[in-house]
Each structure stands twice: as C-alpha cells, then as structure tokens.
Queue: 2 jobs
Job 1
Amino acid sequence: MTDGPALYVDGLSVRFGSLRAIDNLSLLVNRGEIRAIIGPNGAGKTTLLDIVTGKTRPDTGTVLLDGGLDLLAMSEPQIALAGVGRKFQKPSVFEALSVRDNLRLALRAPGRSIFAEMGHRLGAAEEARAEAMLERIGMAGMGARRAGVLSHGEKQWLEIGMLLLQEPRVLLLDEPVAGMSDSETDRTAELVLSLRAPDRAIVVIEHDMSFVERIADVVTVLHEGRTLVEGSMARVQADARVRDVYLGR
Ligand SMILES: Nc1ncnc2c1ncn2[C@@H]1O[C@H](COP(=O)(O)OP(=O)(O)OP(=O)(O)O)[C@@H](O)[C@H]1O
C-alpha cells in the first residue's frame, strides 16, 4: 500500500484514570518528511509513540499507516513487521556481541530466535547489506568491536543502523540526542538528515531545540495531549503560546 500519508492519526484519545494523556489528537505525517514533536514533560509525546507502535491502546481514534493499514487492529509485532520502526531513548544493542553481529541480528528472519540465528550463516547479499550499513552509520572499521565498549553516541548510531536494516516506512526516534556530546549531536543530525527517503517518514521526539531546528521540516508542539501549534521551527519559536508553555521556561 503506497497511497495516502505515511502516518494518519485522527481523533485519538487515551485516558489514564482521570488524566487525558492524548486528547482528541489529529496528526498527519507525509512520506519523505522529517517531523519533530516537541512539548513539555507530560505533553503526551511518548504516549503517542506507544499508541502508534501498539504498546498502548487508545480509547478512541484512528491510526493508519500509508493511508490504509489500521494499526489499532494490529499487535506490536505485526506493526513492526508492517514497517514501523522505533528507537527508544536508551540504546538497546547486544553489548556482548560485536558491532557487525548486532547488524547481522537485525537481518534475522522474524520469529527466529537469537540463538538459532547465531548458528545461521547469512547469505552474501545480507553480509553485504550489514557491511554497507556499517559505512552508512559512520562506523566502517568498527565492525569487530564489542558493542559494550562503544560510546553512547556510537551505540545510538548502531541501533539506528539495526532499525534501518528492517527498512521501516515510518521511523520513530525518541530523544535520539539525549546525553550526547555536541559533536555526537552534530553527527546524529547529519545521519538523520541522510535517512530522509521518498517512501519513508521520520518522526523525532526531542528536547534539544538546535537539533530540531536542523532536522525538522515540520514541528508539532504537543501540550496536554493536543496540538498547540504546528509549522516551521521559525513559526513555532515565534508563537507566544509555545513560549508560555515550553520554550520560554
Ligand atoms: N501507563 C501510564 N499510566 C498512567 N499514566 C501514564 C502512563 N503513561 C503515561 N502517563 C501519563 O500521561 C502523561 C503523558 O506522558 P508522556 O510520557 O506521554 O509525556 P511526554 O510528553 O512523553 O513527556 P516527557 O517529555 O517527560 O517524556 C503524563 O502525565 C504521564 O504521567
């Protein structure tokens, strides 16, 4: 299915007890776009990603992938297989394995266990894909290094590489530069910009505004589970309401 926006969210609401974490939210992200979602703590950013990936079920609303695939009717693994890739804030690579083996694992057949996979030889084409990904994430020459000894930034790039090998149509990144040095943040901005593709949408939650300014085509400001403002970074920064609830703090 290739028609329609990459991600279509309409009338979405979820309550936790009396708290409306997401409140009648509508959002549309096009293919080829890099979207940033910003907003104060508790605005509902992570909850939105949890709903899109099937981790949290909303009370009402619609979430469609590529204009037609009903994500709310699917399980978490089905959503991942349909092309929604998510990177959590903390890196979660296999620390005891080499960088190259981490990438190889990302190419494993869905459902096959890691142990079965370790004894399985990848084909030449898959080995070549893993090698090309090393280059793409700026880690050529580091394939034999144990992932556990990588810097925080390197672990994040490796995990992004692992996600990319699954060819996501929607890539969700939760605070990718949290805890990074300035130079790591710069490299991450370049990497994210290089991931833009005509058939892929990238959604980034981030509090680092200079990073957001560099990467985002459109910025959505969430506040109390709703969209407060949406538009270019310049428009968002100039908005008095955004300064009130978030940027001016
Ligand atoms: N499983 C849950 N049970 C109860 N309350 C929850 C649950 N998940 C989130 N919340 C609440 O919902 C609100 C939205 O949380 P969410 O984590 O989505 O915000 P956020 O915008 O991602 O914030 P942050 O920038 O701090 O990560 C918060 O008040 C949070 O405490």
Job 2
Amino acid sequence: MTAPASRIYCSVDTTEIDAARRIAGQVAGTVGGIKLGLEFFIAQGPAGIRAVVGEDGPPLFLDLKLHDIPNTVAGGVRAALPLKPAFMTIHSAGGPAMMRAAADAAASAGADRPKILAVTVLTSLDEGDLGAVGQSVPVAEQVVRLAKLAKASGVDGVVCSPAEVALVRAACGPDFILMVPGIRPAWAATNDQKRIMTPAEALAAGADHLVIGRPITADPDPAAAARRIVAEIHDHFGETA
Ligand SMILES: O=C(O)c1cc(=O)[nH]c(=O)n1[C@@H]1O[C@H](COP(=O)(O)O)[C@@H](O)[C@H]1O
C-alpha cells in the first residue's frame, strides 16, 4: 500500500481561520491533505479557504455536500474551481442527472479538475434513521445501490462508512475512489459517528482515503495524535505500509 499519511485527510471543522491554520500547520507532513467543510466555508468563504491552504498548501478536500437541482449544483462546482480542490462532495441522493451535471462541471477544469465524490449514507445514520426518512432498507444495501448509481453517473468515487467499503469495492471496482469517514482509533471518542472502524481496519477493508477529524483536532496535541494514527497503521501493515 502507499504511505498511510498521504491517505489521511484531516477534517478541520471550525469557524475560525486562526484555529484552522494552526491545526493545518500542526498536522502538515503527517497527513496527506486538509478537509474544509460547511462550518468553515459558511463562516469564512473562499477567502478563508485560501488563507488556510493557499497556492502551495496541502491538497484540499472541499466538502460542501452539494444537493440541489442539476443546474445549481453544476454552478456550485464551477464556482469552486478557482480554489483548485483535489476533491469535492455532492449528495448521491440528488440523483443521476445532478451527479452527471457535477461531473461535467468539474471536467470543464481540464487536467486540474477536482474529483467528485458522492456521499452515500452519512456515517451518523443507522438503519433506524433510514427508516425514519422512509428508506426501509438495510444500510449496506442502500450504500451499494447509491455507489453503483454514482459510478454510472460519471463521478469519481463515493464517501461511505468503513462498514461498507468492501461491498462497494466489490460492486464498483478497483479504480472507484472510496473516501471514508467514521474513523475512530481505539483510544478516541465515538462522538456522533455510528458506523465506525479504526484507521487500519478501514484501510485493510479497501478504503483509498480516510477522513479523520476530532480524534486529531480535539486532541490537546493534534500533531502527536496524527503521528500516533500513522504509527498504528504502520504497526498493522508492517513494512508494506
Ligand atoms: O462527506 C464527509 O466527509 C462525511 C460524510 C459522512 O458520511 N460522514 C462524515 O463524518 N463526513 C465528514 O467527515 C468528518 C468526520 O469528522 P470526525 O467525526 O470529527 O472524524 C466531518 O467533517 C464530516 O462532515
């Protein structure tokens, strides 16, 4: 496997530019990139994103989870292109036309285009939650259904929980990107995540990238927490990691 550090995106969920810059600096070199999402973007906008990742900064995962009519989502993707994100998120529940529109909008950036990832079933949901919104199917079945739809709609990969990684990999093949949150080292708090695994377990199941937030950012020493996670992955995989 490739170096585990480059496969970790540290999710920096804060409204403050200074806090985001501090954490990004602390984990630089230990993780592969920074994920900035709704909380930060709504508070600080594109200028805030530039202030944290800059031109020569770490790869950016811009996690805005777009979900709207196809024309609006395509416009949102195009509006984000100047930030040069490596990855962007949309919701697969927006349907095939919306996913296709997002993929086409990203493609307009040419070689620098962001990879579009479709969120399947949020890692904070379980079967009871799905039932409450009228989707009375097993979570894994729904995730695989949405992942296949995402692939057929031309997006680059999906966001899914570690519990479905192996199933999605089998259904969608080796080149479909699996970005996996819901990651909790054995020593970290679960918080609001429901479908979780440790970093090593998720990579062993076939995840391409791990999204890890609070186990790193809520630690009194984020740099040490990130190093501990990478060391644990190395321990698990030995020389090949
Ligand atoms: O799209 C995501 O990144 C995402 C999808 C999902 O199903 N679950 C999920 O937790 N996330 C994001 O991944 C990050 C996880 O953060 P922690 O729970 O602090 O590790 C958060 O920023 C979430 O917004």
